[in-house]
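Quick check before the chapter quiz. The format below is the same one you will see on the exam, so make sure you can read both the input and the output lines.
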Amino acid sequence: MQSTTKVIDAVRIGNKWVGEGYPCYIIAEIGINHNGDIDLARRLISVAVAAGCDAVKFQKRTVEVVYSAEELAKPRENPFGPTNGDLKRGLEFGYDDYRLIARYCREVKMPWFASCWDEGAVDFIDQFDPPCFKIASASLTDDVLLRHVRSKGKPIILSTGMSTIEEIDHAVEVLGREELVLLHACSAYPAHYPKLNLRAIPTLRNRYQVPVGYSGHETGLPATVASVALGACCIERHITLDRAMWGSDQAASLEPNGIGKVVGYLRIVENSLGDGVKRVVEREQEVIKKLRRVRAAA
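Here is the expected output.
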């Protein structure tokens, strides 16, 4: 699916542009790391604000739609009860919770949105007028969901982990390329460095001609920082107060110090990339005078 149409350099999300020539858009994924606690969610939003992130992201599911009755009935000891269903329901925020999240995010001037895993969840989040919708890697092959998200008329960020290039081709065909940002990802939690394949970032950019970013699930910082040098215009990392906390995503998340470092390092890398034109900078002129050997003309 090598595109021959016009390159889409940037997509506007809220009051910021995401794409070539603009600062990297940094998403702090709270996801389900709030553990069903609205106060913990607020603390994580504050972490993202302090780090200088551009947005925070949650996850929203209609539990009985996303999971089968058999899956929900499976034994699974957790803080909410003895079954997997107890866990899934306990991790879901309702309307009043999201109303508080929306209010707090307005107060601290932090945009927020969510990965929606079913059509009802999309409709639920849409009532809060998010700046965009996120589609998780697990949902990339769900054509019905993709079309429903597109019907909302908002920009879409689509993660491409656990997906073949043919599956991504099809998802892009279903969604269209307008107001679309792709995120390269390896959907292992945590992901191991040899499997990250960051060189897929320019591959996706060249193939689909849309802005491409990186959703990292590794435990450290270097690969996320390096992704910007390879052209990532949008970064998504899970955040937590403590990686040792209970929860399936905590170990692949960044603590407050970690997300702060990532934001700082990314901005340094952006400032270092330049325009690719080789030139002598002004401060080098004095060094030339001091260090270059001067020969008499023949």
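If your answer matched, good. Residues 256-273 form the longest helix (18 residues).
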